[in-house]
Write a structure and sequence with these properties.
The protein is of the alpha/beta class. Helix content is about 35%, strand content about 15%. A 5-stranded parallel beta sheet has the order 2-1-3-4-5, with helices on both faces. Strand 3, helix 4 and strand 4 form a beta-alpha-beta unit. The radius of gyration is 14 Å and the shape is globular. The model has no long low-confidence stretch (mean pLDDT about 95). Bound molecules: ligand CA2. The site of ligand CA2 has 16 residues, from loops.
């Protein structure tokens, strides 16, 4: 089976993108993010499994699914679980494929409690502060890491 599937996971409240706090998170919706991810991945011959959940255990299930399906890589915006979830960290630690962490905002320029990320312990790279373009950058970087050519 060819390893051409990327998982793009989104944590709690990201389903609200584009509907509230546009000054912080912009006006693009999560649907726009999905379209951007699919278009970027397609340039490298990659497919995207795009998910969002408000529930920690569901995100753990998605990570386990990515492992079982032998995903070529995983992009995750853990949102509010970034700073709290050892369960998500534990699940990510079982993956061999590269993991890229994305944050729409620059978490280092916000409240100090947003700065500590459990996910960063296992992420090969982090994109933060680029708005939704960070997802496209993450996929381009992942493609380079796994040798997928444009
Ligand atoms: O900048 C990011 O992408 C964050 O991961 C977003 C999280 C926040 O807890 C992280 O510190 C940084 C919050 C996601 C909430 O998404 C909303 C989107 C629109 C309106 C309200 C919330």
């Amino acid at each position: 089976m060819p390893k051409n599937k990327l998982y793009v996971l989104n944590g709690p409240n990201l389903n609200l993108l584009g509907t509230r706090e546009p000054e912080l998170y912009g006006r693009a919706t999560l649907g726009d993010v999905e379209t951007l991810c699919r278009a970027t991945a397609k340039r490298f011959g990659l497919e995207v499994e795009f998910r969002q959940s408000n529930h920690e255990g569901e995100i753990v299930d998605c990570i386990q699914e990515a492992r079982a399906k032998k995903a070529a890589g995983l992009v995750i915006n853990p949102a509010g679980f970034t700073t709290t979830s050892i369960a998500i960290l534990d699940a990510l630690q079982t993956l061999e494929a590269p993991i890229i962490e994305v944050h729409i905002t620059n978490i280092h320029a916000r409240e100090s409690f947003r700065r500590h990320s459990y996910v960063s312990l296992v992420a090969r790279a982090v994109a933060c502060g680029f708005g939704i373009e960070g997802y496209a950058l993450a996929i381009r970087g992942l493609a380079a890491m796994i040798g997928a050519k444009e």
